[in-house]
Structure formats: C-alpha cells, structure tokens
Amino acid sequence: MADIDFVVTWVDFDDPKWRSKYTKYKPGNTSTMNNSTRYKDYGTFKYWFRSVEKYAPWVRNIFLITDDQVPEWLNTKNKKIKLINHSEYIDKKFLPTFNSNVIELNIGNIKELSNQFVLFNDDCFLNDFVSEEDFFRNGLPVDMGTFQPLIPDSEFSHIVLNDMVLINEWFKKKDILKKNFKKYFSLKYGVRRLISAATTLPFNELVGFYDGHLPTPYLKKTYTEVVEKAAKQVQKTNENNFRKSSDINHWLIRYYEYCTGKFIPRNSDFGCFFELSDYKKFRSSIEQSKHKMVCINDIDDEIAERGKEVLRESLAKKFPQKSSFEI
Predict the structure, then answer these.
(1) Sheet holding 136-137, edge to edge
(2) Are 271 and 294 in contact (CB under 8 A)?
(3) 77 alpha-carbon distance from chain centroid
(4) For site-directed labelling of 30, which of 89, 156, 183, 199 has its Cα 20 to 30 A away?
(5) Integer Cα distance of 222 and 252 in angstroms
(6) Measured between alpha carbons, how far is 117 from 7 in angstroms, rounded to an integer?
C-alpha cells in the first residue's frame, strides 16, 4: 500500500489578529455560506487528532492547513504534523482568502503531499478503526459514486450546480453508464441510495451525484489534472475572498473520478452525516461506534448550542487520553 496522507483545514475565529482581517474584508451582506458560524472552533479539534492516532496510526503525514494559525495545544514537534499556511500553496494575489473553496481547490499545489490523500474538515471524525483499504484499493479512491438529483435547497446548491455544468460539458451520460454502470448501482450503496439513483435514469444529462459530506479520498494526480482542466472556473473562484454562488468546489474532482470510473464503491454505512441539532443520534453513533466516520455539521441556533455540549461530552468520553499530537 502506497503512503496515504490526511489533510485537514482549520480556523480559529477567536484569534484577534485573524478576526481583524476577517472584519476588514467581510462583504457588507454576509450570506449564510460566510457567516461567523462557519469559522468558529467548538473546542473539539484536539479530539480529531486523538481519533486519528487511535483509529488510523498508519497515516503517513497530517497536513494541517491554516491562515498562519496554530492551536495552542498542538505539538508541532510531532514528525507527522506538517503545518501549511495559505501563503505556501495559494498564489499571493488571491490572499487573504476566507473562501473554503479556494483553500481546498489549491491543495494539489502542496509539493510534499502524497499522491493518495484524504481531505477532512475539522467537523469530521474517525469513529472506529479504519485501514488504508477503507480509503484506497488498487490505487483508486474508495467512495460512494452514485447518482442523486440535485436539490436546490440552499445557496451552496449553486456551487454544486456549477460543478455539474462542467461535468456535463466533459462527459456524456450514456457513455459513462455504459462503462461503469455496476459501480454507479453497486449493491453496497443500499436500497435507499439505489432508488434515488434510479430516479435520475430518465434524464439525458447528469443531474447530480450523491454527496455524503464525509472525508474524501483523492489522487493528487487527478486533483491537479481537473484543476488545470477547469482553469478558467478555478481562476474565477480564486478571485473570491469569500464563498460566492459563482464558485466551484473540490467536489468537481470527485465527480470527475466518478465519471472516469476511477473509484471503488464503498459501503453506505461506512460514515454518517449529522446536524448539531441531531445530538441524540450522533451521541449514540459516537459512543457506540456505529459508523467508522461521522461528520457533525455546524449550524447556529439554540438547539445547536446543546448539540455542541453533547459533542464535546461524547468526544471527551470516547477519547479521554491526550495524543502525541498534543503538548
């Protein structure tokens, strides 16, 4: 098995220096994609490192991407940790950036990064033992490459739609179905996902892929290939300091992998996505290790405040010991 790296992005909204910069560049009308909730740390990031050390000790390196920030508890002397500032891999003319799409689309520029890597957000945690084969097999990413109609239910949907416009320019639905039908309709996805995928068959164009909002395995070679192929749209996204509906995002690379058949189907119960308001469900999943990965999405309301408390309590209970990534 070739080396596999983990990449995780993190920001500390409470850092006065960073917040001053954020305030200076923040647009007058801040959309839900860019409000302060998207940049807040819930005090759970140390548990991300504890989960990695416990459940994926085989990982080669952890690339922590920040805007010149370092968690005060982080042991930067740990040889597996590679601190990467935005200025080290993003063209300075696009900085500062508060746009997660810019931060993620340029990851292929990190020279030390292994060809096989898994992209995490800091709200996604390993929840049970995982192996290299859970992310890559036969040199290909393991993922749920199946169809689902795109539902325009948020500002973020515009970004996904922009990805799909490019995908439909590059691929013909009938061609990819002919080549990889069994991958798109694998029994590993479960009945619910297969029914959802079947509803897209009557359309001539590709109308969307299933997005599980979980850490994504990528091949750096494919990552850079797609970014170059979509150079015009990447340039336009890079120019936006904050996320805009005209952006594209890193899911475009994942969709490209699906359409070229360069992936291995993954079981649907491998990971699960929760909102902070679903604290009863994610507490059970975390404490009983029902899924190997969990993502706890950040929302901001009164119920979510209780969710944050439950999340911290559940993670502290599951990972009570410091990791070697902590001082």
Answers:
(1) 136-137, 140-143, 264-265
(2) yes
(3) 26
(4) 89
(5) 11
(6) 7
